[in-house]
Amino acid sequence: MNSNLNNTSSNPESAMAGQGRVVILGAGESGVGAAKLAMQKGFDVFVSDYGIITDKYKAALEKLNVPFESEKHTEELILNASEVIKSPGIPETAPIVKKLKAKGISVISEIEFAKRYSNAKTICITGSNGKSTTSLLTYHILKSAGLNVGLAGNIGNSFAAQVADENYDWYVLEISSFMLDDMFQFRADVAVLLNITPDHLDRYDYKLENYAASKMRITQNQTHNDVFIYCADDEESLKAIGNSNPQAKTYTFSIFNTVEAGAYLQDNTIHILTEPNNEFTMSISELALQGKHNIYNSMASGIIAKVLELRNETIRESMGSFKNIEHRLEHVAKISGIDFINDSKATNVNSTWYALESMTTDVVLIMGGVDKGNDYNMLKDLVKSKVKAIVCLGKDNKRIHDAFEDDVEVIVNTFSAEEATQIAFHLAKRGDAVLLSPACASFDLFKNYEDRGNQFKAAVKEL
After folding, report:
1. Is the same domain home to 189 and 267?
2. Residue 10 annotated as binding?
């Protein structure tokens, strides 16, 4: 690894501190963190949120003495910015963003802004599925090895707030495509692309190639001193890589073929080799994370650990002791011999495919919500072979009925987590599993996927 981080900004701290007005759009975790760092660096800061700012973040902004507005965007207070830091959730098509772009005002992400003020090295993990699990597992391995490491991005606390308050040597950053769209000078020391499957296509003109190009921005600005890790089994990733010509040193992982540099599966054993004569092996039965998709996640994290030259014993212990995140194939309870599993974080079809693929019993599947242009065809075989009933949880379930009416005998509509859980319980029998894996966003009935998962868990406990 190259130990001398280049300054990744065209606007280093010495040039920017206290010399401009920074406007932050969105007052969530990333926005408030960005406000904290911008205030610390002497900028004139203003925060504007078109939605309602929660009490928690209002209190944080008041404590920082940052002026802010809620439920509106006042143009005269925004269009005079020297730079704008935008929440990843705000699309390019938002009227205020269009006006900023028309005026030539720079619009960047919190990640881009924060990295200007940090010399820490970054491990950046993206992909349509598995990035939260892989980020947390990587963080667990590095922390267990004694590295001074932070966790941020699409997970945990704001990167900018940690840059303001902490002094980490390393960061594991979970990076979404929305974040990547507003990252320009940022450079990842280690970039990981887990997979590319259709997701968020409403933000990319419903073109998979646009979404894939966004994912490949994880490699932008990388040099031969940096590392790029990707899945050799993922066709869309291979296609996107072929179109972008990354410059970093590459490592691949595969469960079907042996690889020269990276990780592969042979006789139910993971083999990881990043340099000659120092191979790491581990039986997949010893992994804390089970299921085919988690073999991929463990391989990616293992390659990172080997690239950082961590001890094999530490990697093995960490990969065997890791506990998965809430709302991702989380076992809630066993009631009357029926397992209840919370996979509310599965907000796209591919995530639900992974969940069903890992199931070893008959399933009553709770799915539905805000459909982001889903193609349910990839689920049909698994639904036919494993799913005995579908309980729809959402305001509009027509597309789910149309997709699966020939594959399962029972499809029921429900409009609350409590109702869905009770009906699923009655449809299941001893030895079955009730799986909440929605394949859809949650915003029709819930605040977010966490709220959906928490309501499901509460409903299970009431059975």
Report:
1. yes
2. no
Q: Is 128 annotated as a binding residue?
A: yes
Residue 199, pLDDT score:
66
pLDDT, one tens digit per residue, over 342-382 is 999 999 888 898 889 888 899 999 999 988 778 899 899 99
The annotation status of 132 as a binding-site residue, yes or no, is yes
Question: Which structural domain, as residue segments, surrounds residue 95?
Answer: 18-108
Residue 5 in any domain: the answer is: no
Q: Looking at the structure, tell me whether residues 117 and 82 fall in a common domain.
A: no
Q: Annotation-wise, does 342 bind a ligand?
A: no
Is 130 assigned a ligand-binding role in the annotation? yes
In a 10 Å sphere around its CB, with 0-12 CB exposed, 13-18 middle and 19+ buried, how is residue 456 labelled?
Answer: buried
Predicted confidence at residue 359, as pLDDT, reads 86
